Design the sequence.
């Protein structure tokens, strides 16, 4: 099969013919229909992600059609499926208590095992997968396994966002844009924050209630003024110290901060304004991925038309353009995300 392989950090992915994947006994092989290019892929590409080593095939935001099923697989040949990026074992105490995204036995295609920047991908633990609704295009569905599911769980599984609350979203990349769209669907009022004016304008055109350019001054103060005392919930969607502190400091008393952005490499340890946490009686949540059993709540929201996730996708690209998309994350990016839909070019 054709695949894009990481051979050297910060260098173009190598387009190669590699061995087709072997079908796991408890899983399936998918012919990949679409795969998103995510900032998490960039962390691996630059060498900051501790688990991503040269020789890896990236890609963890994918959907596809089953072309081979193992003896203990739940799904069958021909099924169209979308996969979460965390594949949980289903048997450990974390899984049995419903917290599959914290499974200690999790499998991670795209980070440790071969990912979906390829024509085919082997997916173990296929009980984590979900049927792709006919009404949802593979291009849009590709983002569900990471950025959309992560945003959904951050808002509903961690922060318990309520209608009428103010939600601040710091960073309007893929997961931030997803969080904004989903928060609006939940009935929240949303302030978006970014340093790219084009992205702020884009969010306002999609229904954001207010926008703050972080280059203009005190972001937290601006949000407290807009919201009449501070956001109820703040989503940090970049993973750096400046936005994390702004997220904490923009909250009203008893507010909830959710750390969605991935702090790895040089951002893994931060200096945090804990006095703001102490004085405001704030709650700080970490989040990563989404338990697979929560897929129906998200898919039903999308299928019902309560939220339109199509604005998330800015462009469809061939596999050969994946390196350009990864390189673009070195600086401020344009609105929307890229999805690989052609694996032959």
Sequence:
């Amino acid at each position: 099969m054709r695949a894009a392989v990481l051979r050297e950090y910060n260098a173009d992915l190598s387009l190669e013919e590699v061995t087709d994947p072997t079908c796991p006994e408890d899983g399936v092989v998918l012919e990949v229909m679409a795969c998103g290019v995510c900032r998490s892929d960039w962390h691996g590409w630059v060498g900051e992600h501790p688990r991503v080593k040269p020789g890896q095939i990236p890609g963890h935001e994918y959907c596809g059609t089953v072309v081979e099923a193992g003896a203990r697989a739940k799904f069958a040949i021909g099924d169209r499926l979308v996969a979460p990026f965390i594949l949980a074992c289903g048997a450990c105490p974390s899984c049995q208590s419903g917290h599959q995204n914290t499974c200690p036995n999790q499998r991670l295609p795209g980070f440790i095992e071969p990912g979906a920047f390829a024509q085919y991908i082997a997916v173990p633990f296929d009980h984590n997968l979900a049927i792709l609704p006919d009404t949802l295009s593979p291009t849009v569905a590709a983002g569900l396994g990471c950025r959309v599911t992560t945003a959904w769980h951050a808002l509903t599984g961690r922060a318990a966002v309520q209608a009428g609350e103010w939600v601040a979203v710091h960073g309007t990349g893929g997961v931030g844009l997803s969080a904004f769209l989903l928060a609006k669907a939940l009935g929240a009022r949303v302030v978006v924050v970014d340093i790219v004016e084009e992205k702020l304008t884009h969010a306002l055109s999609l229904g954001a209630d207010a926008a703050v350019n972080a280059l203009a001054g005190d972001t937290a103060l601006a949000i407290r003024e807009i919201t009449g005392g501070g956001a109820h919930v703040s989503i940090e969607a970049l993973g750096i110290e400046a936005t994390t502190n702004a997220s904490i400091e923009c909250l009203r008393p008893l507010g909830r901060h959710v750390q969605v952005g991935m702090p790895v490499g040089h951002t893994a340890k931060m200096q945090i304004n804990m006095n703001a946490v102490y004085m405001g009686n704030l709650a700080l949540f970490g989040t990563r991925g989404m338990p697979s059993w929560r897929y129906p709540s998200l898919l039903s929201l999308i299928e019902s038309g309560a939220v339109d996730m199509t604005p998330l996708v800015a462009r469809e690209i061939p596999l050969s353009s994946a390196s350009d998309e990864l390189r673009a994350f070195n600086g401020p990016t344009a609105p929307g995300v890229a999805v690989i839909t052609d694996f032959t070019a």
Q: What stands out?
A: The first helix runs from residue 39 to 45. The longest strand covers residues 28-36.
